[in-house]
């Protein structure tokens, strides 16, 4: 019997892993950076790393179904004559017509209205589908001002001045030519089929001092009726929240890095911005330092998936949360039933993010008339309403277990953390200890 | 992020009105910066003498000690004027450094706001109107002055964090905007021996200009270098003993309006700030070009 | 005819009265006195009212105007007639930066000079500037027409889409993807019509040069990356 030297198994680099190698080859072949939709996919500390401390002897829980646990929230009570009243603390985040199809916008409106909450327009203007089917509609005021007009501003229930978003704080947008159909082109005043670039700064103001004047103009135009939100990407949440308040916002929308986008550079999505978990406490601190917590409402978004996430965000000090990606999944995005078609696009259900290419087999992120027909807005709206109700019930379940008659009465002290990272970011103790690592330093 | 007002007088007959005119300009810009306000007034030059503007958060305790503290160093001040939380101490030019040291020795709460032959600097947290009233700015005369009202972005709302920043004799700077390379620049300037009182980006800009002028450059030349070395968004208005300069970054987003007549040159973040100036109806009014140095000298 | 003195009456009251005008109202002429650089004067008008502002205004005068005819007998601050839908805005003096930003329709006439970013992101508005315009004007301009009797600053028409730019004087530099184009008879006609509407009589369309998009940045191409 001859003895063979035992071979070592082939070893792949942790640094140069398969994804990295494929990206180098792709870049070398095409000469363009990778553009995709969605939010950060890398693993970051998140709400999963927090747990609630239920009641037992020292605290008393509430009885499910019998004892009230309210979920209503009022947004925009600071200056607006007509604040927004929501039945649930979960709203639908801004997503553009253009990136989404008309039936998808309709489905979001139907679902949100059934659940008693608001939807939000996006970078592309207001469509009849969403205005008609949304009982409460927030109109985004974006750097591009695509589709911005006086009539729709007055038809909106609130105005959201978008300074940034979590997927790309400091960046503009890019909607590739494939999705600029006749209708999208008309709404955006652009030739059909060309790439649409969205500016990263507003065309007519820069900085909080000018923002204050801009908010003043929007209030004058709408006769001080409508709440004005300011949306920022999670980067310097303490300062940005404080400045939004100083500039006169009624509410601050804070979007962490897991928050999605229709399309931007992969390098931007994965490498700029802070995890949602790390954004909330500094923002709440800013509101508290200014005596504005609960007076200027904080709406947190970026990776909210369940009632547990909602409850944790509220416990950390948010007044409401906003969902985008989860809402798209609820209406049918990335459904494994379409696996064969995802495979044909070179991807798999659950990983599909080339929303900008407009070939979504679910008919959601597309302007292709044939694909769009696949989405039944009535059935999809029902699914979204169901999902929102489940999230709300879950949130109440947790709140009752912590003895709260309103979900806003959840506190950071109702939480503990599973990891040191989450303990530091959420500023709650590591489970079983009284240790909160780190100190304020933003 | 803020409002700026600046006034450089050419007509001597306007000099008694400097404080009043500048105060009106600044109060108009209150909305742009509710956090703090400050004013630098360049008064008449007194040969051989230097003025030190000091501030204390506990003036009732500290300011009565000014005389004794200076006496310990053998200095007899030519004048000590108390105004609320600020005091202007006038001493012989030759004893300036000892005077500064002895004033700072009074207590931890005593800070030096500015030093020079003509400059006096007053700044505090609060609204411009209140700051102006506290220091009776309206009654002050002078040759030129610069005011600022601040909406703090990333650094603390404190007296020291208020503008104008003075990092050299008779020099001051106010800033509207946000610098993006000030941390690296501060490290470099510290290495060269500059001392910083705050973590404010605008103080870095002031110190940068002081350092450049320390190399023998004129204010105009220092501003030319600033276009190259400072990154970010800025509109600066700067003062020296006899000069007044304006600079905007190459992108020039932060607002700036200037007016010039035979009697004065004025700067405002908004036109509103200029409407009360005499003869504004017929003044030449323009917006400074990006990356272009504007500079006037007596 | 209503006369509103802004040194006595709050701005809110002016805009409230302007918004209260409905189709068929008779009192549609407003005089505004002592604006003293106020912001948001006569914003959000949606009826064919006439507003005469006597003095200079601050930011966003006539913002989102939809059908109003607004004249400022003075100068205008940043963002005059921003996002105008329709109607006419005339500035007798100078305009600050962002004049006519994202405007979608109507006519903006500036008798003096306009500062930087005039017509930024314009989406259908027509702008006539009798003086000169500052840098980065018509940045990302999508449609509409900008006519400048004087000179243009640096980077005119950077990242331009389909807006038409006509400049009579010198252009300091053209922005990325903006080129000089051939002047055809329809363009001369276009200029003539706009000059007429703006009340400019002593200038001939033949004195202008035409600038437009080279359309090289319309679809991403790595070989154009230096331009971005």
From TrEMBL, chain A:
InterPro entries: Aldolase_TIM, GltB, GltB_archl_type, Glu_synthdom. It is an enzyme of class 1 (oxidoreductase). GO terms for molecular function: oxidoreductase activity. Gene3D superfamilies: Aldolase class I. It comes from the Bacteria. CDD domains: GltS_FMN. Its EC number is 1.4.-.-. Residues 108-129 are annotated as: Disordered. Residues 109-121 have a biased composition (Low complexity). Pfam families: Glu_synthase. Belongs to the glutamate synthase family. This is FMN-binding glutamate synthase family protein. The lineage of its organism: Bacteria, Pseudomonadati, Pseudomonadota, Alphaproteobacteria, Hyphomicrobiales.
TrEMBL record, chain B:
The keyword Transmembrane does not apply. InterPro entries: GATase_2_dom, Ntn_hydrolases_N. SUPFAM superfamilies: N-terminal nucleophile aminohydrolases (Ntn hydrolases). Pfam families: GATase_6. Keywords: Glutamine amidotransferase, Transferase. Residues 2-298 form the Glutamine amidotransferase type-2 domain. CDD domains: GlxB (cd01907). This is Glutamine amidotransferase family protein. It comes from Rhizobium alvei.
From TrEMBL, chain C:
Residues 39-180 form the Glutamate synthase alpha subunit C-terminal domain. CDD domains: GXGXG. Pfam families: GXGXG. This is GXGXG domain-containing protein.
């Amino acid at each position: 019997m001859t003895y063979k030297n035992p071979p070592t198994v082939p070893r792949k680099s942790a640094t140069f892993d398969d994804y990295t190698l494929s990206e180098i080859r792709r870049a070398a072949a095409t000469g363009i950076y990778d553009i995709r939709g969605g939010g950060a996919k890398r693993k970051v500390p998140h709400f999963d790393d927090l747990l609630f401390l239920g009641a037992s002897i020292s605290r008393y829980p509430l009885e499910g179904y019998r004892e009230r646990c309210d979920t209503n929230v009022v947004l925009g009570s600071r200056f607006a004559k007509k604040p927004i009243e929501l039945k649930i603390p979960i709203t639908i985040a801004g997503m553009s017509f253009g990136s989404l199809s008309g039936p998808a916008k309709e489905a979001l409106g139907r679902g949100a209205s059934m659940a008693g909450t608001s939807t939000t327009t996006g970078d592309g203007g207001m469509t009849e589908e969403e205005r008609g089917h949304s009982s409460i509609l927030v109109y985004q005021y974006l750097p591009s001002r695509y589709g911005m007009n006086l009539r729709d501003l007055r038809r909106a229930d609130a105005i959201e001045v978008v300074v940034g978003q979590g997927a790309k704080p400091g960046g503009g947008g890019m909607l590739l030519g494939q999705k600029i159909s006749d209708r999208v082109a008309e709404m955006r005043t652009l030739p059909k089929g060309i790439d649409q670039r969205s500016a990263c700064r507003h065309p007519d103001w820069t900085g909080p001092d000018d923002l204050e004047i801009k908010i003043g103009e929007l209030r004058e135009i709408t006769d001080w009726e409508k709440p004005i939100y300011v949306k920022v990407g999670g980067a310097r949440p303490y300062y940005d929240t404080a400045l939004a308040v100083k500039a006169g916002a009624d509410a601050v929308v804070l979007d962490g890095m897991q928050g999605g986008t229709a399309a931007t550079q992969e390098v931007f999505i994965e490498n700029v911005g802070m995890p949602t978990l790390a954004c909330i406490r500094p923002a709440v601190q800013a509101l508290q330092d200014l005596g504005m917590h609960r007076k200027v409402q904080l709406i947190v978004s970026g990776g909210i998936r369940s009632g547990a996430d909602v409850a944790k965000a509220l416990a950390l000090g948010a007044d409401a949360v906003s969902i985008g990606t989860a809402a798209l999944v609820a209406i049918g995005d990335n459904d494994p039933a379409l696996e064969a078609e995802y495979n044909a696009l070179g991807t798999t259900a659950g990983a599909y993010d080339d929303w900008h290419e407009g070939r979504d087999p679910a008919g959601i992120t597309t302007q292709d008339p044939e694909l769009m027909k696949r989405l039944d807005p009535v059935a999809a709206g029902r699914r979204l309403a169901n999902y929102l109700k489940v999230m709300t019930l879950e949130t109440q379940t947790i709140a009752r277990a912590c003895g709260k008659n309103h979900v806003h009465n959840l506190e950071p002290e109702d939480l503990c953390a599973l990891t040191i990272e989450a303990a530091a970011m959420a500023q709650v103790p590591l489970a079983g200890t009284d240790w909160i690592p780190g100190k304020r330093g933003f | 992020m803020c409002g700026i007002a600046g006034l450089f007088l050419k007509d001597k007959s306007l000099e008694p009105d400097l404080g009043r005119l500048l105060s009106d300009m600044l109060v108009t810009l209150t909305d742009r910066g509710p956090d703090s306000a400050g004013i630098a007034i360049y008064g008449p030059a007194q040969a051989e003498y230097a003025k030190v503007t000091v501030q204390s958060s506990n003036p009732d305790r500290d300011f009565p000690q000014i005389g004794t503290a200076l006496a310990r160093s053998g200095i007899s001040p030519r004048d000590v004027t108390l105004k609320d939380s600020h005091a202007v101490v006038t001493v012989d030019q030759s004893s300036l450094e000892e005077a500064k040291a002895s004033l700072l020795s009074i207590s931890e709460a005593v800070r030096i706001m500015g030093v020079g032959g003509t400059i006096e600097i007053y700044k505090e947290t609060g609204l411009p109107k209140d700051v102006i009233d506290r220091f009776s700015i309206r009654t002050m005369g002078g040759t030129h002055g610069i005011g600022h009202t601040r909406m703090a972005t990333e650094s603390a709302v404190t007296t020291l964090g208020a503008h104008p920043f003075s990092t050299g004799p008779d020099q001051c700077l106010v800033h509207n905007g946000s610098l993006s390379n000030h941390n690296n620049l501060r490290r470099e300037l510290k290495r060269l021996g500059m001392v910083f009182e705050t973590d404010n980006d605008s103080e870095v800009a002031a110190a940068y200009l002081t350092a450049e002028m320390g190399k023998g450059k004129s204010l105009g030349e220092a501003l030319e270098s600033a276009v190259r070395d400072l990154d970010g968004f800025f509109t600066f208005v700067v003062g020296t003993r006899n000069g007044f300069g304006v600079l905007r970054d190459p992108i020039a987003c932060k607002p700036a309006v200037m007016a010039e007549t035979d009697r004065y040159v004025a700067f405002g973040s908004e036109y509103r700030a200029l409407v009360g100036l005499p003869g504004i109806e017929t003044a030449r009014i323009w917006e400074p070009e990006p990356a272009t140095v504007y500079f006037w000298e007596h | 005819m209503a006369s509103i003195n802004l040194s006595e009456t709050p701005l809110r009251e002016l805009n409230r009265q302007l918004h209260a005008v409905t189709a068929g109202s008779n009192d549609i002429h407003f005089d505004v006195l002592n604006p003293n650089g106020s912001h948001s004067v006569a914003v959000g008008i949606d009826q064919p009212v006439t507003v005469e502002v006597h003095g200079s205004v601050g930011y966003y005068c006539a913002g989102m105007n939809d059908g109003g005819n607004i004249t400022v007998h003075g100068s205008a601050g940043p963002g005059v007639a921003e996002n105008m839908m329709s109607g006419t805005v005339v500035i007798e003096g100078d305009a600050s930066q962002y004049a006519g930003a994202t405007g979608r329709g109507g006519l903006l006439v500036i008798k003096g000079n306009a500062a930087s970013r005039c017509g930024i992101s314009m989406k259908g508005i027509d702008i006539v500037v009798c003086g000169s315009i500052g840098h980065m004007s018509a940045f990302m301009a999508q449609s509409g027409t900008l006519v400048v009797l004087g000179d243009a600053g640096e980077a005119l028409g950077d990242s331009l889409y389909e807006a038409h730019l006509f400049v009579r004087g010198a252009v300091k530099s053209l922005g990325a993807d903006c080129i000089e184009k051939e002047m055809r008879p329809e363009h001369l006609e276009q200029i003539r019509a706009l000059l007429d509407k703006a009340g400019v009589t002593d200038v001939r369309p033949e004195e202008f040069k035409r600038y437009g998009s080279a359309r090289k940045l319309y679809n991403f191409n790595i070989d154009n990356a230096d331009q971005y």
